[in-house]
Structures are given as C-alpha cells and as structure tokens.
Specification:
157 residues, alpha+beta, 60s Ribosomal Protein L30, Chain: A, 5-stranded mixed sheet, two-stranded antiparallel ribbon, 5 helices, 7 strands, 31% helix, 33% strand, globular, binds zinc ion
C-alpha cells in the first residue's frame, strides 16, 4: 500500500466560472488559474501522483503547455488515473477537505462525489469530501481564495 498527500490553492475573482469537484458552483466569484482552477481535483491529482511516485501535477501537466490552457480538470484526473493504473496501482480510498468561506457547498458534495468517482471509475464510498470555512481568517476568510487537501491510499494489484 502507498499513501499520498495533495494540497492546492487558487485565487477567487469575480467574473470567473467557479469549477470545484468537477461541477460548476453558482457564485459571484470563481477560481482563477491556467486550467479551470478546480482546487479539489488538483489536490486529488497531486495525492495520486505522489502515492504512485510520479512527482506532481506541474510535472505531469506543465502550465507552459498551451494545449492545457483552460482544460477541464476532469480530463487531467482521467489521465492521472491512466498513469497510476499503468504502474499497477488501484485506489483504496481518498479523503479530502475543501476550505472555502463562501458559498457554503455542503449540499453540493454528493454531486461532486458522483462526478469524480465516475471519472476515477471507483465506488462512491471510496471518496470522501468534507467542506469547512476558515472561520473568517486569512485569505480564505476574506473570500480571496480557496484551498483543498487530499490523502489517498493506493494498493498494488
Ligand atoms: Zn490548481
């Protein structure tokens, strides 16, 4: 068994679509970045790559690659699953936490779990998504950004 950890953060700005957990969140602001800036998917990808000894998202999908500009992070997640399967790993479980002040997203978690487990071809019970605020502290509390954390357990065979 192999454990992996991932972290990601993105700025939130008005006038951007807010992609998170493979779905669109209705809000006045959205996360900004080179791809669709889906912080939860990026944290999961880094955890998967780390567990498999495949470095990180920036190494596998460099932001200098213009073919990846604005790309749906679900596509990157699917490519990552292919990479870890090629190395002979299967996913045991994934546990994640999103830290976001606004909007409150707990009602959207089942939809995110469906979207992401479909892409990773795992059971819904193998992915946990938790959401919390930062108690109004720091850049997340000021609604300037979002962070996400993920741990995964991979098994061989
Ligand atoms: Zn990211």
């Amino acid at each position: 068994m192999r454990i992996g950890f991932g972290f990601d953060t993105h700025a939130l700005e008005t006038g951007h679509e807010f992609r998170l957990g493979g779905i669109t969140v209705q809000h006045t602001k959205g996360a900004t970045g080179h791809s669709d800036a889906d912080a939860l998917i990026h944290a999961i990808i880094d955890a998967l790559l780390g567990a498999a000894g495949l470095r990180d998202i920036g190494n596998q999908f460099p932001d200098t690659d213009i073919s990846l500009k604005g790309i749906d992070s679900q596509v990157l997640l699917s490519k990552t699953i292919d990479l870890i399967r090629e190395k002979g790993f299967t996913i045991s479980n994934i546990d994640t936490t999103i830290v976001l002040q606004q909007p409150r997203i707990s009602k959207l978690i089942p939809e995110m779990i469906l979207a992401l487990t479909k892409t990773m071809n795992i059971e819904t019970g193998q992915l946990s998504i938790k959401a919390k605020t930062s108690e109004n502290l720091g850049f997340i509390g000021r609604e300037e950004g979002i962070s996400a954390y993920a741990v995964v357990l991979l098994e061989t065979g």
